[in-house]
Every structure is written in structure tokens, then in C-alpha cells.
Design goal:
The complex is a heterodimer of chains A (240) and B (304).
Chain A lengths: L2 E12 L2 E12 L3 E5 L6 H9 L6 E6 L2 E2 L8 H4 L1 E4 L11 H8 L8 H11 L1 H5 L10 H13 L5 E5 L7 H18 L2 E6 L2 H7 L2 E6 L2 E7 H6 L1 H7 L6
Parallel strand pairs in A: 3-8, 3-9, 6-7, 7-8
Antiparallel strand pairs in A: 1-2, 1-4, 4-5, 9-10
Helix pairs in contact in A: 3-6
Chain B lengths: L1 H31 L6 H21 L5 H28 L8 H22 L4 E2 L7 E5 L6 E4 H23 L1 H11 L1 H6 L4 H27 L1 E2 L3 H16 L4 H21 L5 H15 L14
Antiparallel strand pairs in B: 1-4, 2-3
The chains are: A alpha/beta (240), B mainly alpha (304).
């Protein structure tokens, strides 16, 4: 199997702080890969670096056989990479519908109504709130919107940053079920950043553990779940 | 009553010009978050291009005023667009991402530069223009004070309403408008969705410049004389209009413009004309005390 995304010894800096210290990982086509780690380990930075903000200071990012290390942020969607970023970053003063339309900004107009239908089927809650300003919705609804918006571009690779953050347990299970469905039914490759290691590793084919800007461990989702060190560090307190 | 009506018409006309310029301030502020202090100068250039173009057309003894205005309008829009685009490219874009005051100072520099540039090129004297659009009709002829509305005034008010409606639709209903609002709210996220932020900002400057050209053309037609300094006070007033209406709000800019036009007209009619600017800025202060976000500005209520 060939890697859809391969990150090779990537370093990234925010000013003087080295946030990524030579990270290498691969994501194969059709996989769900989880990236777990503590707060500040560099998970979100890695997702943003893939998209080119900040640009990788060293190393290479190869996507679908093409070096995208220096590619502009606004060209990522064209390549088929979509991100639901840290903090969701929905457009608060736009309606739910407008947010979704923004997701399809570069897409073919003819697909728009069909894709909106699919998104509303996937997240019925968003259909109810279609004309509501996104900033007035609850955290969970905003999360659905952020994922829906990313999907509107019909991505080949979906980067999800903490989709379960701040959600009620019932909603967490629902979001993870949705991610599985997106992956299985639509064949979207997913790179998932999570603090909720239990759910993430159960969902993922493979996982990586990021510590202080370096990959500390990797393996299949199940093998990482069974690893005593991981259990101790990330799964303490049960199913979080 | 007749006097009131006459001042209302005059005030609305003046307000329309302020409003058109104010939209340029408000759009740029809304999207880039900076006050483009050179915008008044772009308007002045629009007025000068109109004057020069009319003069050139005049030497060919151009017959149809409507066609002449159309040609001049296109010329003015092309020129101001190029200026607007260039100013953004040279003076603002390199400073994007630096501290907030930097582009503001750069804008003031551009403003001074453009003023002196036109001063050198055109001289300091008022340049007059023959009236192009003449005539009008009397609305109430029976009293001792006939209320006149000229064709030009009607044209100005209609054009302003149409442009205002057009731009509001553009911002709220089109893909370009959505991209502009997205850049306003979260530039990085907009880029992540494929919006070319630099290009969107350039387009915004060009749109503002085009409106300034219309305002400049209107000024030339209405007052019949232009000098290099008209952009300064008009820019200041239009900026005041934008703040009064709520900066970032398109209808607010228009409302602010109209209010300022009306205040000036009515103040000049009843009180010493020398104090009309004091009245305008006094009202601004009062409004900002009670509504710091302006009349139609939004107090940011957001759930994070």
C-alpha cells in the first residue's frame, strides 16, 4: 500500500519555540490514523504544518506523491486536503448554511445542493439550525459544523483536530461513529488528533504517540490500547 | 416648510456622496481591520480624472451628456481601481502581520503623498468645469420659496441607492461576498478553505476605489470645481460617517453619510456655517458615548 500522506523528519517553529522536532509518520489511503499526546505535545501544530501554516522549517511533506512542503495554505483544498482545525474556527457571524457553503468554496456549484443534503443527513442538527448564526450555537453543534464544513470540499484526506473536545459523552460516541461512517462509506482518509485516546485508538487503524514534538511510539490502534505505558499515561481513569 | 424641504434635498445629495466614500472605509476596515486613510485621496483622484476626462471630451464637442458621463465614469473607475490596488500592494500588504499601527501610519503617508502628487501635477488652483447636467423641476411653486430639485440631484440619489443595494447584495449573497466576510472573521480559516486572502483583499480595495470614483465624479458634476485638497475633508467626513453608522456595516456607512449630509445642510441653514463641522463631530461624540459601536454596528455577542 502506498502512503497518501508521508511526513518526513519535519521540524516546525513558532518563533524561538521548536514545536515539532523531526516528526515522521505516514497515512495510507483509506486509513484512519490517530495522533495522541498530551496538551502542548505539538499535535495541532503538526496538522497546521501539513497545511503550510506554519511552514515546515525542515523536512518534507509528501501528499499523493507530490511534495507539498512549500505549498500555499489556500491551495490545500484544491489538492483534496481539508481540516477541521483546533478551536473549530467556524465563522461565527455567518449562518450554518453559509459556513457550509464556504466549505465548498472551490467546489463545483453543481454538487452544492446534493452535498448540503448529505451533510444535513449526516448532522440533522445542522439542518434544524440552517439559518442560525453559527456563533450562537452550542459547542457540540459548532463541532458538527466544523466537520461538515471540512467535508463539503469532498476531501481525500480529512484532518480532524480534537473533534470530541468539550462534548457530552453521548455526543462523543456519535461524533466518532460519524467519523467511521465518513471513512467507510465515502472512502475519506482521516488523520485524527485526539486527547480522548481511548475512543481515538479504538476507531483508528493505526496510531502515533506524540511527546514534546517527537513521535514516541506507533502501532496499530489495538496494540497501543494494550500497551501498559500508554494505558498509564493516556488512559488512566478508564474510558475518559 | 419649503425651506426645510429644500435643505432636505441638498442634505441628501451631500450625504449620498459621503455615504459612497464611507462604504469604501467600512469595507476595508471590515475585512482588513485597518483604516485606509488614503481613501479620501482616491476619491480626490476620481474627481480629478472625471474633470480631466470631461475636459477632453469637451474639446471634441461631445453632444450627449449621458454618454459622456458614462465614458468618464468608466475612465474614473479604471484609474481609481489601479490606484487603490497599487496602494494596497505597495503600502499595506508588506505590512500585513506587523503591529496594528504600522499600516495606519503607512496609510497617512500614502495620503500625504497622493495629495502632493496631484498638487504637483495639477497645481494648487481650483479647476472649474462647465455644468454638464443642467435643469430640474420645481416641486412646490406656489409659495414665495420655490423648492427645486435638479436632475443631477435626482440622479445622484438614485445612483447612490442602486449602488448601495447592489453592494449589499454582493456582500451578502454572492460567493465573493462570502469570501470577503470569511476573511473578515478568520483569515487563516478562510485560506484553509481555499480562499486566496491576498486576492480577496485586493478586490475589496478595488471595490472601494470604484465607489470613490463614483463619488468623485458626482462631486465634479455637482460642485463643478476640483482641487487637490478635497479628499482630505471629504475623507474625514466619510470616515466619521462610517464610524457613526458603525464601522464594518455597509448600511451603517450609508446611514452615517446621509445623517452627516443632513446635519451639515440643516446646520448651515439655521446656524453659522463656520460651525457646521463642529456640529457633525459633536454628534459623532454624542452617538459614540451612548452607542460605542455606532448606530448599526454590532456589539460582538459570540459564544466561544
Amino acid at each position: 500500500m502506498t502512503a497518501l500522506l508521508s511526513i518526513e523528519r519535519v521540524k516546525a517553529r513558532y518563533g524561538p519555540v521548536e514545536a515539532l522536532r523531526g516528526v515522521s509518520l505516514t497515512v495510507d489511503e483509506g486509513e484512519i490514523v490517530a495522533l495522541i499526546g498530551a496538551n502542548g505535545a505539538g499535535k495541532s501544530t503538526l496538522l497546521m504544518t501539513i497545511c503550510g501554516a506554519p511552514k515546515a522549517a525542515e523536512g518534507r511533506i509528501v501528499y499523493a506523491g507530490q511534495d507539498i512542503t512549500g505549498t500555499d495554505l489556500h491551495d490545500m483544498v484544491k489538492l483534496g486536503i481539508a481540516q477541521s482545525p483546533e478551536g473549530r474556527r467556524i465563522f461565527p457571524r455567518m449562518t450554518v448554511l453559509e459556513n457550509l457553503q464556504m466549505g465548498a468554496y472551490l467546489g463545483d456549484e453543481r454538487n452544492l445542493s446534493g452535498d448540503l443534503e448529505r451533510m444535513f443527513a449526516l448532522f440533522p442538527r445542522l439542518a434544524e439550525r440552517k439559518y442560525q448564526r453559527a456563533g450562537t450555537m452550542s459547542g457540540g453543534e459548532q463541532q458538527m459544523l466544523a466537520i461538515g464544513r471540512a467535508l463539503m470540499s469532498r476531501p481525500r484526506l480529512l484532518l480532524l483536530d480534537e473533534p470530541s473536545l468539550g462534548l457530552a459523552p453521548l455526543l462523543v460516541a456519535q461524533i466518532f461513529a460519524t467519523i467511521r461512517e465518513i471513512n467507510r462509506a465515502q472512502g475519506v482518509t482521516v488523520l485524527l488528533v485526539e486527547q480522548n485516546a481511548y475512543h481515538a485508538l479504538r476507531l483508528a487503524n493505526r496510531g502515533y504517540v506524540l511527546v514534546n514534538g517527537e513521535i514516541r511510539m506507533s502501532g496499530t490502534g489495538q496494540s497501543l490500547l494494550d500497551d501498559p505505558d500508554i494505558r498509564k499515561a493516556y488512559l488512566a481513569g478508564g474510558h475518559g | 416648510m419649503e425651506y426645510f424641504l429644500q435643505q432636505l434635498i441638498n442634505g441628501l445629495t451631500l450625504g449620498a456622496i459621503y455615504g459612497l466614500i464611507a462604504i469604501g472605509y467600512t469595507m476595508v476596515y471590515g475585512i482588513v481591520g485597518m483604516i485606509n486613510f488614503a481613501h479620501g485621496e482616491i476619491y480626490m483622484i476620481g474627481a480629478f480624472v472625471s474633470l480631466v476626462a470631461f475636459t477632453i471630451l469637451g474639446t471634441f464637442a461631445f453632444a450627449s451628456p449621458v454618454l459622456a458621463i458614462l465614458i468618464v465614469l468608466i475612465a474614473a473607475i479604471i484609474f481609481t481601481s489601479v490606484y487603490g490596488w497599487t496602494v494596497e500592494r505597495i503600502a499595506y500588504r508588506p505590512l500585513r502581520g506587523s503591529f496594528r499601527l504600522a499600516p495606519l501610519i503607512s496609510a497617512i503617508g500614502v495620503s500625504i503623498f497622493l495629495q502632493n502628487y496631484v498638487h504637483l501635477l495639477q497645481g494648487a488652483k481650483m479647476k472649474p468645469l462647465q455644468p454638464i447636467v443642467t435643469g430640474g423641476f420645481v416641486m412646490t411653486g406656489d409659495g414665495s420659496f420655490p423648492v427645486r430639485i435638479t436632475y443631477l440631484q435626482i440622479g445622484i440619489i438614485v445612483a447612490t441607492v442602486v449602488l448601495m443595494a447592489g453592494f449589499t447584495l454582493l456582500i451578502h449573497k454572492t460567493k465573493l461576498g462570502r469570501a470577503q466576510r470569511a476573511c473578515e472573521q478568520d483569515r487563516k480559516m478562510a485560506a484553509l478553505l481555499g480562499v486566496n486572502v491576498d486576492r480577496t483583499i485586493s478586490i475589496t480595495f478595488v471595490m472601494g476605489a470604484a465607489l470613490a470614483a463614483v463619488a468623485g465624479l458626482i462631486f465634479t458634476l455637482y460642485y463643478g470645481a476640483v482641487d487637490f485638497f478635497i479628499g482630505f475633508l471629504a475623507g474625514l467626513k466619510a470616515f466619521t460617517a462610517a464610524v457613526l453608522g458603525g464601522i464594518g456595516s455597509l448600511p451603517g456607512a450609508m446611514l452615517g453619510g446621509l445623517l452627516i449630509g443632513l446635519i451639515e445642510a440643516f446646520w448651515s441653514a439655521h446656524f453659522p456655517i463656520a460651525y457646521k463641522d463642529v456640529a457633525v463631530f459633536g454628534i459623532l461624540v454624542v452617538v459614540l458615548i451612548f452607542r460605542p459601536t455606532g448606530l448599526l454596528g454590532r456589539p460582538d455577542v459570540e459564544k466561544v
